[in-house]
Amino acid sequence: MSSFISASPIVQSPPRSAVRLTDVRKTYRSGRTRVTALDHISVTLTPGSFTAIMGPSGCGKSTLLHCAAGLDQPTRGSVWLGETEITALKPKARSVFRRDNVGFVFQAYNLMAALTVEQNVTLPLLLARRRTDRTRLEYVLAAVGLADKRDRRPAELSGGQQQRVAIARALITKPHAVFADEPTGALDSRSARQVLDLLRRATTELGQTVVMVTHDPVAAAHADRVLFLADGRLVGHMDSPTVAAVTNHMTHLGEW
Ligand SMILES: Nc1ncnc2c1ncn2[C@@H]1O[C@H](COP(=O)(O)OP(=O)(O)OP(=O)(O)O)[C@@H](O)[C@H]1O
């Protein structure tokens, strides 16, 4: 895979925060009971940072990712992506904002089976009725190591290659932030490392902001910072994480 550096400039004059949550609370109704999935979540992620979110099963990681990305609306509190308060947008406007400004990478890749690699990568531009910047496309395809596979369909690719297509698709629009939910959950360790290196390089070489939910201390150790959640609350963070330090902290948090 080639370097991100040679092909595209770093984002200029970024806002002070890429993602900001202020006193976010999310409750779900489940029959007669109310589940508090998130409570008093306030966090600011700087542009170009790589943040992992960890915590025991059911602690609210996916809910936090979905609220931060505008896929779900908090019950209370505000979420900002760059200069836009997405919690103040009406559902339609939020969905358009998300389509044009947010990148997603899911465990299950979510590629369109009938489309080629290149068509999958440029799909967000098509949906946003934006012209494809060929330079950006070539550079993203080269960076994820798939320039020579641009005419293949997803079924003709390995899992790791499919996830790299999903990352290229997430980066093509130069989003405010890329949100990744267990992006390496279905991959072998070598493919997982390639995907994590890609996400890391998207931050260091492109200035992209990446937020990743993971259960895996090896994955989390690629981030600049790990946020630890328990029972819907932020209970700690770790800068410059190592596999051993994250494993140790998670063991103290309980089941995971
Ligand atoms: N749509 C929903 N309706 C009711 N409760 C929900 C809903 N979505 C999530 N929850 C509850 O909110 C809490 C947090 O769920 P969430 O999926 O965010 O946790 P998680 O940390 O991502 O879990 P896991 O690691 O197992 O994927 C859980 O108690 C869950 O049961």
Tell me about this structure.
This is ABC transporter ATP-binding protein. It comes from Rhodococcus xishaensis. The chain is an alpha/beta fold. It has a domain at 47-62 and 100-253: P-loop containing nucleotide triphosphate hydrolases (Rossmann fold). It contains eight helices and ten strands. The strands form two sheets. Strands 6-7-8-3-9-10 form a six-stranded mixed sheet, sandwiched between helices. A four-stranded antiparallel sheet has the order 2-1-4-5. β4 and β5 form a beta hairpin. α3 packs parallel to α5 (159-171) and α5 runs parallel beside α6. It is globular, with a radius of gyration of 18 Å. The two termini are 33 Å apart. Mean pLDDT is 91; it is low at 5-12. Residues 28, 30, 35, 37, 55, 57-63 line the site of adenosine-5'-triphosphate.
- Helices, by number, come to 8
Which distinct ligands sit in these coordinates?
adenosine-5'-triphosphate
Instruction: Please mark out the parts with pLDDT under 50 across 5 or more consecutive residues, or reply none.
Output: 5-12
What would you say the CATH architecture of the domain at 47-62 and 100-253 is?
A: 3-Layer(aba) Sandwich
The average pLDDT value, as a whole number, equals: 91
Structural class: alpha/beta
Task: Characterize the main sheet.
Answer: 6 strands, mixed
CATH level-3 fold name of the domain at 47-62 and 100-253: Rossmann fold
- Order of strands, widest sheet: 6-7-8-3-9-10
Beta-strand residue fraction: 25-35%
Provide the CATH top-level class of the domain at 47-62 and 100-253. Answer: Alpha Beta
Order of helices and strands: EEEHEEHEHHHEHEHEEH
**Helix proportion:** 25-40%
- Can you count the beta strands? 10
The first-to-last residue Cα distance is 33 Å
Per CATH, the superfamily of the domain at 47-62 and 100-253 is P-loop containing nucleotide triphosphate hydrolases
**Outline type:** globular
InterPro entries: AAA+_ATPase, ABC_transporter-like_ATP-bd, ABC_transporter-like_CS, ABC_transpr_LolD-like, MacB-like_ATP-bd, P-loop_NTPase
Protein name: ABC transporter ATP-binding protein
Organism: Rhodococcus xishaensis
GO cellular component, one term: membrane protein complex
